[in-house]
Write a structure and sequence with these properties.
Blueprint lengths: L2 H17 L9 H4 L10 H7 L2 H10 L1 H21 L4 H22 L24 H4 L4 H12 L44 H18 L16 H6 L7 H14 L17 H16 L27 H8 L3 H23 L10 H14 L1 H9 L4 H14 L6 H15 L2 H6 L19 H15 L8 H11 L8 H14 L2 H6 L4 H17 L5 H9 L1 H8 L5 H13 L29 E3 L7 H4 E6 L5 E3 L13 H5 L19 H13 L8 H8 L5 H21 L4 H10 L12 E6 L3 H18 L16 E3 L1
Antiparallel strand pairs: 1-5, 2-3, 2-4
Helix pairs in contact: 1-4, 4-5, 5-6, 5-8, 6-9, 9-12, 11-12, 11-14, 12-15, 14-17, 15-16, 15-18, 17-18, 17-20, 18-21, 20-21, 20-22, 21-24, 22-24, 22-25, 25-33
InterPro entries: Hid-1/Ecm30 (IPR026705)
GO cellular component, one term: Golgi trans cisterna
Protein name: HID1 domain containing
């Protein structure tokens, strides 16, 4: 039978499913076999030959036919998993069943009445010919049978792994296989790298695509703050019921971290052959990020020093999370970190050697995986920060943040990058590592500077705030919190970075900006705290910053004398109407951008994006810790936190100017972006119920931490002016030399304790990660378009 004939038969069978008025018997093998017999179908063919409208029609009009089709496809997979599919024909049948289920499942999930179908034990109760599976598996729901069969098939000799057969007669029984000997790639806990076999890679990819589709039921439930709702597919697959959980987790992690898109060291090699490994790596990293969901109610694994085994299991144990949290060997950490850094850096290498390597597209999934590693495995986090290897992750993140700042379709990427830096900035070592000189020349459209990684971070953050799009405003708090967290450890800022920080203070401290929302003054508090930390703890190497503060001293005087009478407040708000732009983008002394860089550009019209839920405010995202004399951190009770001051609740209650739920909504409320947009517009039209009052201004103005800076100006300004007059100086290098050797010992107020705001997990961020991650998975699976045009509820799909 030619391939076009068999496609025709397949198509005919699909049409018959919808048109037959009588249900087709499950025993009618001649009919059902048409769906999986063809040897030349591809997954793209299946998607073309089984149109969405027809799947929905069968679901509504011939439900028993849809049930039988699912049942028969699962049955075939179960039989193949038991036999080990020794023949080519059986392997082809497995692939066809896999593709059909991948095609149909989203339409099962989008209909509430069908969602339980795979979890029922007796499909289509009592129909003839359905007894084969009932003897030992009768009690298992269809979903469990399917998941266990897929797990078995992922370690099937000659199909998805290399055979270890000793001689022609020995048979590898699927039941007795120890899959730990068949791990797909060397790395964590496994030393041998099996020879590459692109057929195995293709087969694994198809099975993983089906798994991902099974897990995607999560996309069809609306966002909810109830973290106790577990994804039953993930829960079962990652439980002890799956005897392959450990080898599969290890295979997925190793395949991702060992992947080198350079084509084994030969530049331009990727142009010659299709890289099947890349498709496998993409599916593997997507499976990892969606399975590494924490069990509801279970606390994070303790970061105790005790050995691995003593952890008390709580709730249904997700073994993927469990294994991830228990990795502890230095060489394993090194393998994982180097692999992720290599892949994250790949799109940057592209920029200065165009086409020399294959440009990977899955950096968002890699960032989520890196986040989960740091979040679930504190030892990994400490390993990352132990050496300057953390900078190999920092630089690509800053590159992505800078590159995506003007593109509204990449607002999720901006968030994940900032969240990772916020998490890292809670650890002292991160600030210390930033002092390493920055000598790479990754082309970025930022001003050229000579300095450290700290300078790079500040220059990029400044660029995001002054030239990013408006939707990034909720992230300003996070960006400045990161700068405050690292500031006590920064030994020497460059002149470029120092000027950028002062430009931000200048922009954020104009009266119209301070009075236009209930929260904007927090930004000024963060910047003042940054300056205070550097002056008190790192004065010696920071003459550039001190000089910049002296030059811009009027900004501090204006802040100290900020008018708070009703007339001045009105006048400032009138000004706001005239200049709707958030921040004065002028006078920021923009210099020439780096050579070879491209400007950040908005999304192409027509780009698809998925909506996100709002992020919690910075006070919910972080908790304060005080650094004591010996460098240990003590957490600060929430009540007495004067900085940054939270205006009384009534003042904060009416605002809806940011996408963060800070201090006014119950943190369990989730809005889609469209809803946030509507709220913003309605609050703008009613000119918001919140109005700045003199009392409100005084309530925080009196707490502005200006003493240290005022004292510094009081001591140094007369001295600098004297030098200028005496020597007739206009040259800043002399002044810098003077400041470099100056000292303020004994002249400044007693140093304040260092406050670090550490990221803390909460229901709001958990939900944000779920919507972001599934949105990425949705948009990245376009060939075939698994979920396109189905009724997804977790997010909205928007066209730019």
């Amino acid at each position: 039978m030619g391939s076009s004939d068999s496609k025709l038969n397949f198509r005919k069978a699909v049409i018959q499913l919808t048109t037959k008025t009588q249900p087709v018997e499950a025993t009618d093998d001649a009919f059902w076999d048409q769906f999986w017999a063809d040897a030349s179908t591809t997954v793209q063919d299946v998607f073309a030959l089984v149109p969405a409208a027809e799947i929905r029609a069968v679901r509504e009009e011939s439900p028993s036919n849809l049930a039988t089709l699912c049942y028969k496809a699962v049955e075939k997979l179960v039989q193949a998993a038991e036999s080990g599919c020794p023949s080519e024909r059986e392997r082809q049948m497995v692939l066809n069943c896999t593709r059909i289920l991948t095609r149909i499942l989203p339409y099962i999930f989008e209909d509430q009445d069908w969602r339980g179908f795979f979890w029922s034990t007796v499909p289509g109760a009592g129909r003839a010919g359905m007894n084969e599976l009932d003897e030992d598996d009768g009690a298992r729901p269809l979903a469990e049978l399917l998941l266990l069969a897929v797990a078995d098939l992922l370690f099937c000799p000659e199909f998805t792994v290399h055979s270890h057969k000793r001689g022609p007669d020995s048979v590898e029984s699927m039941q007795s296989i120890d899959s730990c000997e068949y791990i797909w790639e060397a790395g964590v806990g496994f030393a041998q790298s099996p020879p590459l076999n692109y057929i195995h890679d293709l087969n694994r990819t198809e099975l993983l695509r089906l798994l991902l589709t099974c897990f995607s039921e999560a996309m069809y439930l609306p966002p909810s703050s109830d973290n106790t709702v577990l994804n039953p597919w993930v829960t079962f697959f990652c439980s002890a019921e799956n005897r392959h959980a450990l080898p599969l987790f290890t295979s997925l992690l190793n395949v991702v971290c060992a992947y080198d898109p350079v084509g084994y060291g030969i530049p331009y090699n990727h142009l010659l052959f299709s890289d099947y490994r890349e498709q496998l790596v993409e599916q593997a990293v997507q499976i990892l990020i969606v399975t590494l969901e924490h069990d509801a109610g279970a606390p994070h694994p303790p970061a105790s020093t005790s050995s691995i085994d003593e952890q008390e299991p709580t709730g249904p144990e997700n073994l993927f999370v469990n294994y991830l949290s228990r990795i502890h060997r230095e060489e394993d950490f090194d393998f994982v970190l180097k692999g992720l850094a290599r892949l994250l850096t790949n799109p940057l290498t592209q920029t200065y050697l165009p086409n020399s390597t294959k440009k990977i597209q899955f950096h968002q999934e890699l960032l989520v995986l890196f986040w989960k590693l740091c979040d679930f495995n504190k030892k990994f986090l400490f390993f990352v920060l132990k050496s300057s290897d953390v900078l190999d992750v920092l630089v690509p993140i800053l590159y992505y943040l800078n590159d995506a700042r003007a593109d509204q379709s990449r607002v999720g990427l901006m968030h994940i990058g900032v969240f990772i830096l916020l998490l890292l900035s809670g650890e002292r070592n991160f600030g210390v590592r930033l002092n390493k000189p920055y000598s790479l020349h990754v082309p970025m459209d930022i001003p050229v500077f000579t300095g450290t990684h700290a300078d790079l971070l500040i220059v990029v953050f400044h660029k995001i705030i002054t030239t990013g799009h408006q939707r990034l405003q909720p992230l300003y708090d996070c960006l400045l919190t990161i700068i405050v967290n690292v500031s006590p450890y920064l030994k020497s800022l460059s002149m470029v970075a120092a000027n950028k920080l002062l430009h931000l203070l200048e922009a954020f401290s104009t009266s119209w900006y301070l009075f236009s929302t209930a929260q904007n003054h927090h930004l000024v508090f963060f910047l003042l705290e940054t300056f205070n930390n550097i002056i008190q703890y790192q004065f010696d190497g920071n003459c550039n910053l001190v000089y910049a503060i002296i030059r811009k001293r009027n900004v501090f005087h204006q802040l100290a004398n900020l008018p708070s009478d009703p007339a001045s407040i009105q006048k400032a708000l009138q000004k706001k109407k005239k200049s709707p732009d958030l921040i004065s983008r002028t006078n920021s002394q923009e210099t020439v951008s780096m050579e070879g860089s491209h400007p950040a550009v908005p999304a192409e019209p027509g780009t698809l994006k998925t909506s996100l839920v709002a992020i919690p405010g910075i006070d919910k995202l972080t908790e304060k810790s005080q650094v004591s004399e010996d460098g240990t951190m003590v957490s600060v009770p929430k009540t007495d936190s004067p900085q940054p001051v939270h205006s009384d609740q009534s003042a904060a209650a009416g605002t809806s100017d940011t996408e963060s739920n800070s201090g006014r909504d119950n943190e369990d409320v989730f809005y889609t972006e469209a809803e946030m947009q509507r709220r913003r517009l309605s609050s703008a039209s009613s000119v918001s119920s919140w109005v700045p009052t003199p009392d409100w201004v005084l309530s925080w103005k009196s707490k502005l931490p200006l003493q240290t800076i005022m004292r510094l100006l009081q001591v140094l300004v007369p001295q600098v002016e004297k030098i200028c007059i005496d020597k007739g100086l206009t040259d800043e290098s002399e002044i810098l030399k003077f400041l470099q050797h100056g000292t303020l010992v004994g002249l400044l107020p007693v140093p304040h304790p260092i406050l670090i705001r550490k990221y803390q997990a909460n229901a709001g961020t958990a939900m944000w990660f779920r919507t972001y991650m599934w949105g990425v998975v949705y948009l990245r699976n376009v060939d075939p378009p698994i979920w396109y045009d189905t009724d997804v509820r977790l997010f909205e799909i928007q066209r730019m």
